[in-house]
Amino acid sequence: MAVSADTFNKLSEKVDEAKASIRAAASESETELKAKVEEARKNADEKAAELGVETQAAADQAEAHWQQIQSDWDQHRQNVRRRIDEAKAAQDIDAAELRAEWAESDARDAVEFAANAIDEAKYAMLDAILARRDVGLLLEASS
Question: What is the four-CA torsion angle of 19, 25, 31, 34, rounded to 10 degrees?
Fold first, then answer.
């Protein structure tokens, strides 16, 4: 299957949507923000499940390291969600401060992970284009 810049355009659109949502969150009420957090969590869980299904479906074609990355990411997400849920259950200021620090750290880590994933995706896309071009050159040379 050929690759194109459209894949990166979709990624860019997702980043733009996320930035707009994050900016808007600063002026929303606590109720609106809680609803937005729950919706984002639900969407992230759904996308992770879809990615897991897609990864499993492509298991015969995909390299094992991508499956390990998906597994590690899923485990990380579950640990973060568990910590968030535990911290939400605690109502004291120290627990709330710790939850805020964890959430901020997790947000920074997720952004850094995404940035690295973009670099890896760029490399993979460029390599796929080069590999397809090599096929064309080999076909030309053999005819």
Answer: 40
